[in-house]
Amino acid sequence: MWPSKPRRSSKIPRSQERVVILGASGGMGRSLALKYAQEGARVCVFARRELELSQVAEECRAAAPKTKTNSAGERVLVVRGDFTVVEDMVNLRSKVQDAWGGLDTLIVNAGVPTFRPFCELSGLEVRGRTFTPTEPDAEAVKRAVQVVDEVTRINYLGPVVSAATFIPTLTSSMAPAIVLMASLAAVLPAPTLSLYVGSKAAALGFYQSLAIEHPWITFTAVLPSTVRGEQFFDNAADGGKVRGQDPESYGLSCDEVVRGVLDGVDKGKTTLWLPSRGRTAFFLYWLFPGFITKIARKRYGYPAAD
Q1: Tens of pLDDT along 105-117?
Q2: Domain of residue 85, residue span
Q3: Max CA pair span of the chain
Q4: What SUPFAM superfamilies does the database record attribute to this sequence (predicted)?
Q5: What digits encode the pLDDT tens for the residues 49-85?
């Protein structure tokens, strides 16, 4: 058997860990922030929505254990901004360095979904091989490209800006880590999610390459399947709605994902399949693509192929 890798917490106790969470104003980001705060880490929450972000910060302060030397409030930072905007990210880095002198853990969590079949973005109605109208005009294609630009900006450019801004800052850590909250969709295609799948796959490949370029940083890619109760589903970049099965009927809970993330990062895992059967589905897709495709069509309420 291979010798077990020492846990990261043996180098950085949670009470000394400095964590930045991007996209922390709700959903998974909020849940991660609360868990880290509860366990005594110093937490910086970052997002665009100021009111929601302030509420998450107050929850973190209330959840954090009180110490004699530091109040909970001093261990929770709040910075408002957009992770696709370079100036906002440099400002975030400056505030973290001023407050803590460096960073141990960067969690890249923000993202946006899409739920419409791709050709619908160009105004086409699709029935098998029949399109109405028969072709999109230039303006229709431009409208589709606008959605592509928005999804790419958030799901790919944001993680790129984050990495460029913070990788050098992590030299201050004894055990630096970057966590990319990706998706099972980054490795398993699905109908109606084409833009989401493509952008998440791009970010995943980018971070996997960074892991080779910077072996002194532990890069953890989190590949959860659908998560229940996420505000995520109400903010599709293409204005679409979830199709097929209701995510509340089969998805993971935020708590399940959070527990998996903290444990996986502590163990130094490079890929987290949540749940573990996601890895099985990934391999089955390459062995029996027709089988997985049929399941995907059913789950997302997409018509059978003609």
Answers
A1: 999 998 899 999 9
A2: 12-299
A3: 71
A4: NAD(P)-binding Rossmann-fold domains (SSF51735)
A5: 999 999 999 999 999 988 655 544 579 999 999 999 9
